[in-house]
Amino acid sequence: MYDVSTRKRALALVAQGRSLNSVSMETGISRAAIRSWQVRIEPLMRSGIPCPRCRDIPGPPEDPAAYAYLLGLYLGDGCINAHRRGVYFMRIALDNAWPGIINACETAMRSVRPDNSVYRVKKQGCVAVTGSSKHWPCLFPQHGPGTKHNRQIALEPWQQEIVDAHPWEFIRGLIHSDGCRITNWTTRLVRGAQKRYEYPRYFFTNKSADIIRLFTATLDKAGVDWKQANTNNISIARKASVALMDTHVGPKY
């Protein structure tokens, strides 16, 4: 494996008019590898797409709103696994019942990594939207060994800036992965008769106390009232807050 600076140096030598043979002899890099970089990497380096976190001056992803949504999905139902040759796979597992969310997840993943492959893996009852990239750990530093609820989950300052700028995308991603909108009902005694009342509410469920805190802190900034139903559950039931959630999130689809 070669780092970015090594690839840049080899491509710069070729750009000077040097032959692949001479560059290969000077750098010890095979001609096949250099030729591959010319086809796949050189155009991306010119456009600045490869990885915003690996640039000389790290920057945010090209589509911060899509990133905020994908971050929410990842913290809820996502994982990142190492593969061969330094490639990582991000997988977001989503229920077959919500094809609209599956489409939205794929769109967001393609927006965050436009030059990497994104595809769907069908499983029993669900679809794993999957993307391959060497840079998922750069873009999602929450990646680590073990389950999320057994390790610390905290946002980097640059991630928090994105979430602060796009809170509803982040909230939507979390709800689309580990949340729901349901209709509750209760009865009241009206003029001697029991009358049934129905009202909508949102729930978010996650085993990680850190992810719960990220969710509720973002709700606070968005002006949404919430209550902790139990250790792993957040409830949003006040009429004004439900209306706000309906405007920006809505039922799963």
Describe the model.
The chain is an alpha+beta fold and 253 residues long. The chain has three domains: 4-47; 64-151, Endonuclease I-creI (Roll); 176-248, Endonuclease I-creI (Roll). It is 45% helix and 24% strand. β1 (78-82) and β2 (88-95) form a beta hairpin. α5 packs across α6 (99-112), α5 packs parallel to α9 and α9 (167-178) packs across α10 (209-222). It is elongated, with a radius of gyration of 23 Å.
Helical run tally: 11
The helix/strand order is HHHHHEEHEEHHHEEHEEH
Tell me the name of the CATH homologous superfamily of the largest domain: Homing endonucleases
**Cα Rg:** 23 Å
User: From the helix content, strand content and strand pairing, which structural class follows?
Assistant: alpha+beta
CATH architecture of the largest domain: Roll
Q: Output the CATH class name of the largest domain.
A: Alpha Beta
Shape annotation: elongated
Question: Could you name the key traits of this structure?
Answer:
single chain; 253 residues; alpha+beta; Endonuclease I-creI; 3 domains; 4-stranded antiparallel sheet; 24% strand
Topology diagram in text:
Blueprint: H1 4-15, H2 20-27, H3 31-40, H4 42-47, H5 64-77, E1 78-82, E2 88-95, H6 99-112, E3 118-123, E4 126-133, H7 136-139, H8 157-165, H9 167-178, E5 179-190, E6 193-205, H10 209-222, E7 227-230, E8 233-236, H11 239-248
Antiparallel strand pairs: 1-2, 2-4, 3-4, 5-6, 6-8, 7-8
